[in-house]
Structure formats: structure tokens, C-alpha cells
């Protein structure tokens, strides 16, 4: 085998020497690496050379019987490796499943109350822990019942005070609407009062001006004196009427404003009383709910404490049951509740035995396979792929 491998390597080396000599010769003849034609001869010759190397190598391997031997060894080794990994995964999965099933046997034995001398101590520990859990669970249930009652009482009390607050707020809102209406009317009257005051001031100023003008006209010798006097007299009369009318309206507005202010005072007092009542009810609500809130907090803390104790005890029981599982599996006490569990464990164990047997057989085949032939197969495949890639590249470059 070593002689044939050496001859094969010598042939390949010689082909590569020829390849480099031809490449050097063509490169020397064509400095630009190509002819003026459409074919790039250097890549083309290289592609032909690699094709010859590929065909020659495969032919040599076939004639020597190595191609079939290496291919068979490599393909079988690959197939067995895949099968070995699959069986290994199945074996690990079955072992884990059996371990979990055996661990659960302890819990099933405890739930079915199946006692046995082989795990008596563990069974007694479980009984002791269960005895500790029962009063804690009963106390927790009692505390939760009381907590629900306190929550209900608090809810009813809160609703009663909330209704009182809503009623007071509604009454206060009605009075506030009346007060807002009065304030709006006052604002409207104040604007009218301001406008009338401005008009009154203007009218009085015009009246004084025209009175003075009338006195001047009366004292003059103007030819149309009578007409001017008559005109000014009428204007003064109109202004006087307007001043008088505005004065009356101003008096009315002042009277209305006074009435509104008087009416607003009891409204404001009512609102203040409602605010006091609301504050008092809120304080009473706070004081009434405080002890209930405190009681709720204390009950919740107690319930949480009991639940944590029960959880810790349950975790201890789980650990003991898990440790008890292999002992139950070993002793296999008779029990209708455990018969099916035993059957399931045995079923998976039988499957595991078959898997281990098949895995051992496949592993033995892998160990017995000729590793040198397998290695040569992979080298052969790699070499063929490299040559094919090079041939494609040079053919693309050539055309």
C-alpha cells in the first residue's frame, strides 16, 4: 500500500512539474498572457492540463482498486459517525428519562401511602413533615377567611363614607353653581355700571359746555340768536334727560349689586360649612379605616409567613421523595398504584438496552474501520473538488 501511494504521489508531482514548465513556456512566448484571438490560451492550456490530471488521477485510482476501497471506507465511516451520534443522543435521553421516572417513584409511593422497610426512615420523615404542614395549612385557611371578612368590612365602611362625601360634594356643587351665577351677574352689572359712569361723565361735561355756550349766545347780538338759543336749549334738555336717566339706572345697578352681595354671603357660608363637613368626614373615614388597614397588613404578613413555612417544608418533602425514588425502584413493593410506573420504567430500560447494544455495535465498526483509508477518501474528495474548481475558473478565464 505504501509503495502504491508513493508511486501515485510521484505521478502527481511530475504532472505539476510539467504544468509549471508549460506555463512558463507559454508565458515567455506571450508576454501579455493572451493571443490576439478570442481564446486566452494560457488559462485554456492550464484547464486542459488540470482535466488531464483529474482524469489521470481518477483512472489510476480506479485501476489500482483504491477508488472503490477508499470511497466505501469513507462513506461507511461517515454513515456510522452519524448513526453513532444519533444513538448517543438517544441513549442520553433515555438515561435522563429513566432517572426522572425513578425520581418520581418516591412521590408516587408516598401519594399511594406504600410503606416498605428499605425506605422506612425516609417515609417516617415525610410523615413528620406532613404532620407539620397540616396545622400550618389549616391556620392559613383560617387567616385567609378572616382576611376576606376584614376586606369586606373595610369595603362596606369605605362605601358608606364615600356616599356621605359624594352627597356633600353634590350639595356643595349646587350652591357653587348659584354663587357662580350671582358672580356672573355681578360682573355683568359692573361692566354696565362702568359704561354708564363714562357716559354720565361725558354727558355732564357736554351739558356744562353747552350751558356756557348758551350764556354766551344770550349775551351776544347775533342775528340768529333766537335759533341758536332754541337749538342749545333743546340739546341741553336732551342731555339733562340722559343724565337723569343714567343716574336712575346707576342707582338701580347699585341696589341690585347690594342685593346680590347680601344673597352671596349665606352661599359662601354654606360652601364653607360643606368644606368643613367634607374635611370632617374624610378625617372620620381615615380614622375608621386605619385599624382595618392595620389588621389587613398583619393578616397578610401572617399568611405570607405561613406560606413560606409550608413552601420550605414541601421543598424538604420533594427532596426526600426524590432520594427515596431509587430505593422504591430497588425494593419494588407491591402496589396497584405503582405497577404501571414499574412497567413504564422497565419499558424505557429495555429500550435503553437496545440502544446501548446498537451503539456499541456501531462504535465497534467505527473503531475497526481503516482510518488511513478514510483519511485518503477525504483527501481524494478534497483534491477532486479543488481540481474541478480550478478547471472551471481557468475555462471561464479562457473564454
Structural commentary:
This protein has 399 residues and is an all-alpha fold. It has two domains: 2-114 and 335-398, no CATH class; 118-331, Helix Hairpins. It contains seven helices and no strands. The protein has helices at residues 2-29, 41-64, 66-111, 120-219, 225-331, 336-368, 371-398. Helix 1 (2-29) runs antiparallel to helix 2 (41-64), helix 2 runs antiparallel to helix 7 (371-398) and helix 4 (120-219) packs antiparallel against helix 5. The longest helix has 107 residues, at 225-331. The protein is elongated, with a radius of gyration of 57 Å. The model is unreliable at 1-8 and 22-37 (pLDDT under 50).
Observed structural traits:
7 helices, single chain, 92% helix, disordered N terminus
Short structural description:
The chain is mainly alpha-helical and 399 residues long. It has seven helices and no strands.
Summarize the SSE layout with pairings:
Elements: H1 2-29, H2 41-64, H3 66-111, H4 120-219, H5 225-331, H6 336-368, H7 371-398
Helix pairs in contact: 1-2, 2-7, 3-5, 3-6, 3-7, 4-5
State the helicity in percent bands: over 70%
The SSE string, one letter per element, is HHHHHHH
Q: Structural class, from secondary structure content?
A: mainly alpha
Domains, number: 2
* Overall 3D shape: elongated
- What about the largest sheet? none
Q: CA-to-CA gap between the ends?
A: 42 Å
CATH topology of the largest domain: Helix Hairpins
Q: How confident overall, as mean pLDDT?
A: 80
Query: How many strands?
Result: 0
What is the annotated CATH architecture of the largest domain? Orthogonal Bundle
Low-pLDDT residue intervals, each spanning 5 or more residues: 1-8, 22-37
Estimate what percentage of residues fall within beta strands. Answer: under 5%
- The total of helices stands at 7
Rounded to the nearest angstrom, the radius of gyration is: 57 Å
Query: What is the C-level CATH assignment of the largest domain?
Result: Mainly Alpha
Amino acid at each position: 500500500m505504501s509503495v502504491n501511494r508513493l508511486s501515485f504521489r510521484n505521478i502527481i508531482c511530475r504532472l505539476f512539474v510539467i504544468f509549471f514548465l508549460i506555463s512558463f513556456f507559454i508565458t515567455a512566448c506571450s508576454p501579455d498572457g493572451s493571443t490576439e484571438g478570442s481564446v486566452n490560451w494560457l488559462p485554456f492550456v492550464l484547464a486542459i492540463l488540470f482535466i488531464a490530471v483529474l482524469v489521470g488521477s481518477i483512472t489510476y485510482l480506479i485501476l489500482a482498486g483504491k477508488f472503490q476501497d477508499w470511497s466505501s471506507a469513507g462513506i461507511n465511516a461517515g454513515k456510522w459517525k452519524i448513526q453513532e451520534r444519533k444513538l448517543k443522543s438517544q441513549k442520553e435521553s433515555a438515561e435522563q428519562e429513566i432517572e426522572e421516572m425513578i425520581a418520581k417513584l418516591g412521590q408516587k409511593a408516598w401519594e399511594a401511602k406504600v410503606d416498605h422497610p428499605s425506605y422506612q426512615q425516609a417515609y417516617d420523615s415525610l410523615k413528620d413533615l406532613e404532620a407539620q404542614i397540616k396545622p400550618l395549612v389549616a391556620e392559613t385557611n383560617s387567616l385567609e377567611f378572616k382576611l376576606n371578612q376584614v376586606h369586606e368590612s373595610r369595603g362596606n365602611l369605605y362605601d358608606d363614607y364615600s356616599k356621605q362625601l359624594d352627597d356633600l360634594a353634590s350639595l356643595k356643587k349646587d350652591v357653587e353653581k348659584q354663587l357662580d351665577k350671582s358672580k356672573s351677574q355681578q360682573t355683568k352689572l359692573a361692566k354696565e355700571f362702568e359704561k354708564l359712569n363714562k357716559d354720565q361723565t361725558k354727558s355732564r361735561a357736554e351739558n356744562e359746555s353747552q350751558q356756557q355756550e348758551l350764556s354766551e349766545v344770550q349775551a351776544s347780538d347775533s342775528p340768529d340768536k333766537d335759533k341758536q338759543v332754541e337749538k342749545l336749549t333743546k340739546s341741553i334738555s336732551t342731555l339733562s334727560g340722559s343724565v337723569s336717566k343714567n343716574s336712575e339706572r346707576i342707582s338701580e345697578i347699585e341696589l341690585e349689586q347690594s342685593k346680590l352681595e347680601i344673597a352671596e354671603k349665606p352661599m359662601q357660608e354654606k360652601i364653607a360649612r360643606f368644606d368643613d363637613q367634607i374635611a370632617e368626614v374624610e378625617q372620620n373615614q381615615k380614622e375608621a379605616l386605619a385599624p382595618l388597614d392595620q389588621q389587613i397588613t398583619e393578616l397578610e404578613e401572617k399568611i405570607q409567613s405561613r406560606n413560606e413555612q409550608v413552601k420550605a417544608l414541601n421543598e424538604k418533602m420533594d427532596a426526600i421523595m426524590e432520594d427515596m425514588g431509587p430505593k422504591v425502584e430497588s425494593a419494588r413493593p407491591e402496589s396497584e398504584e405503582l405497577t404501571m410506573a414499574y412497567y413504564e420504567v422497565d419499558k424505557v430500560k429495555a429500550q435503553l438496552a437496545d440502544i446501548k447494544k446498537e451503539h456499541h455495535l456501531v462504535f465497534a465498526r467505527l473503531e475497526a474501520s481503516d482510518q488511513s483509508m478514510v483519511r485518503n477518501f477525504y483527501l481524494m474528495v478534497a483534491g477532486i473538488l479543488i481540481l474541478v474548481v480550478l478547471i472551471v475558473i481557468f475555462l471561464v478565464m479562457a473564454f
